[in-house]
Amino acid sequence: MSAIFNFQSLLTVILLLICTCAYIRALAPSLLDKNKTGILGIFWKCARIGERKSPWVACCCIIMAFSILFLQ
After folding, report:
1. Average pLDDT over residues 25-53
2. Average pLDDT value for the chain
3. Cα radius of gyration rounded to whole Å, the chain
4. Which InterPro entries is this protein grouped with (predicted)?
5. Are 15 and 23 in contact (CB under 8 A)?
6. How far apart are alpha carbons 61 and 57 in whole angstroms?
7. Under the phi-then-psi rule, with left for phi > 0, alpha for psi from -120 to 50, and beta for the rest, what region is 47?
């Protein structure tokens, strides 16, 4: 089943996108900072969410990992 139609898979993809964008911005900020608008601006926004809400994102990642490992 596609990640679009399965809510848990969609949440997992969104969390991975946020974490990946925040990691890339930490390593090479110029890659994401030059694309703040347009379709590539989504990655910049995900990086900002990952930086500003990092305790909440980390908590969601732990909950999602527990859910995937032990509840499926």
Report:
1. 87
2. 86
3. 13
4. KISH_domain, Ksh1
5. no
6. 6
7. alpha
Which amino acid appears at position 12 of this protein? T
Look at phi and psi of residue 38 and say left if phi exceeds 0, alpha if psi is from -120 to 50, else beta.
left
- The single residue listed with the structure tokens 């809400």 is 53
Quote the pLDDT of residue 3. 59
pTM: 0.81
Per-residue pLDDT, 54: 87
Task: Give the chain's largest Cα–Cα span.
Answer: 41
Residue type, 11: L
**CA–CA separation, 17 vs 12, rounded Å?**
9
DSSP string computed for 1-70: --TTT-HHHHHHHHHHHHHHHHHHHHH-HHHHHT--SSTTHHHHHHHHHHHHTHHHHHHHHHHHHHIIII
